[in-house]
Design a protein that fits this description.
Beta-Lactamase; Heat Shock Protein 90; six-stranded mixed β-sheet
């Protein structure tokens, strides 16, 4: 069922429901008011009969009064002398008393017909007057009043349905235009939508435009990532191929083994590069909906324990400075990857004997992770490029992919943190500071 049909059926259903409630209320209210009015008329008619009975009654028993109105057949009266002798009655009145001898209103059933009766005595106390009407007349009048009120509404219902159909169609026309604009787009068209729409629809258009912008950015990142990855993988694969060819052409075992060792190192570099590429690809679609408390000092201690064997082999000292435990909202696995890449870079690119310090602290009240060394550091012009993908400083002899700090940058963005690269401890070496903007 379309939205237009659903709206039309719901509106018409509500209208019919309201009309039905109004009809029931009108019927019962009309019946109540009619009973009040007609009871008053009965009492008033009996008063008139009392006033006229003394000098207008004929001695002829059973004399009939004339019928003057179409409803007069449903209204009857009787005048009894002494309450026992019928002196005068209307043509439609029964021959038996309509009511008792007590004064006031009463209900009685005579020959299967129900009457509403008002009984009263004249001033002399000799004449008993009954004025009555059939109660089904009251219900009929209430039904006629209700039907007369609702019939025009029922006749107008088809016209109302047509008008509602037109109003709903006109109101939904912007949605139809939006649907056509989206349906007619080419898959590669991610330009913002420019559709005139009501205020209620504008948030949807804004979200779509935001989605198009994010999708375009992701596609552009993927294209650039694919191109860069293909370019970077070409070099180690070519190096491996060259070393294998050297091993095939080697005339002695020493030359062959040396070439194979170089090929294995090339495979290790390619494996490391592929692992970094996969990590970076996963970060592009990281889900931040399940953030949880992350104790930074505990995470740092665990990562340092993993890196220690590599650091000992390279002659690098790792040190976690004393301080309080600081907890941030984040993804523990990604924060471990970030710390591992920072420490791995420090171990790879600093000379033996270097001290690498990890400090979990607060700067201006904001949680920070600072990793610094007392190595040679980098020139200022190199610091601005170091977070670019696949960038490696000139003169670097250690193996690497140039993706470590790019991964750190991306994880920091996911956690709404900033990355600053500058001088290390006491102005020497290199220092990387990750500051979490959200506590």
């Amino acid at each position: 069922m379309s939205l237009k049909q659903r709206l039309l059926l719901l509106v018409l259903g509500v209208v019919v429901l309201v009309w039905g409630g109004a009809a029931a209320f009108t019927y019962y209210d009309a019946q109540h008011e009619l009973n009040e009015v007609l009871d008053a008329h009965l009492a008033q008619a009996s008063t008139l009969l009392v006033a006229q009975s003394a000098h207008e009654l004929d001695d002829d028993e059973g004399e009939h009064a004339p019928l003057l109105h179409k409803y007069s057949r449903r209204v009857a009266f009787q005048i009894w002398e002494g309450g026992d002798e019928l002196k005068l009655h209307s043509a439609n009145a029964p021959s038996v008393p309509l009511g008792g001898k007590e004064q006031g209103f009463s209900d009685t059933v005579i020959e299967g017909q129900q009457w509403r009766v008002f009984s009263t005595w004249d001033r002399s106390g000799e004449l008993l007057i009954h004025v009555a009407e059939l109660t089904d007349m009251r219900g009929e009048l209430a039904r006629e009043i209700t039907s007369n009120l609702l019939l025009p509404l029922l006749l107008a219902l088809p016209l109302l349905a047509v008008l509602l159909w037109w109003v709903v169609a006109a109101s939904l026309r912007p949605l139809v235009s939006l649907t056509q604009a989206v349906a007619s787009r080419q898959p590669d068209n991610l330009a913002p939508l420019n559709v005139t729409a009501p205020r209620e629809v504008m948030p949807l258009i804004e979200r779509l435009n935001h989605l198009f912008a994010r999708t375009g950015k992701l596609i552009e990142n993927e294209r650039r990532f694919t191109a860069d990855a293909a370019h970077e993988l070409r070099t180690p694969i070519a190096g491996i191929k060259a070393q294998v060819q050297v091993a095939q052409g080697a005339s002695d075992a020493a030359g062959r083994n040396h070439a194979l060792d170089n090929a294995i190192q090339g495979c290790n570099r390619a494996t490391h590069l592929i692992g970094q590429l996969l990590t970076l690809a996963r970060l592009e679609s990281a889900d931040t909906a399940n953030l949880q408390p992350c104790p930074l000092r505990t995470l740092a201690a665990g990562v340092i324990a993993e890196i220690v064997p590599q650091a000992l082999e390279a002659g690098i000292r790792l040190e976690l400075l004393d301080g309080e435990e600081i907890t941030v909202q984040g993804l523990p696995a990604l924060l471990q990857v970030m710390l591992r890449n920072l420490l791995d870079n420090a171990v790879r690119y600093t000379p033996a004997g270097t001290l690498v310090q990890v400090d979990i602290t607060r700067i201006q009240g904001k949680p920070c992770i600072r990793i610094s060394d007392n190595g040679a550091g980098l020139p200022a012009e190199e610091l601005a490029k170091i977070t670019q993908r696949f960038y490696r400083p000139l003169g670097t002899s250690a193996s690497g992919s140039g993706l470590g700090l790019s991964i750190v940058q991306r994880i920091a963005e996911i956690h709404q943190a900033t990355v600053q690269v500058g001088a290390g401890s006491d102005g020497q070496g290199l220092g990387v500071t990750v500051t979490f903007l959200l506590r």
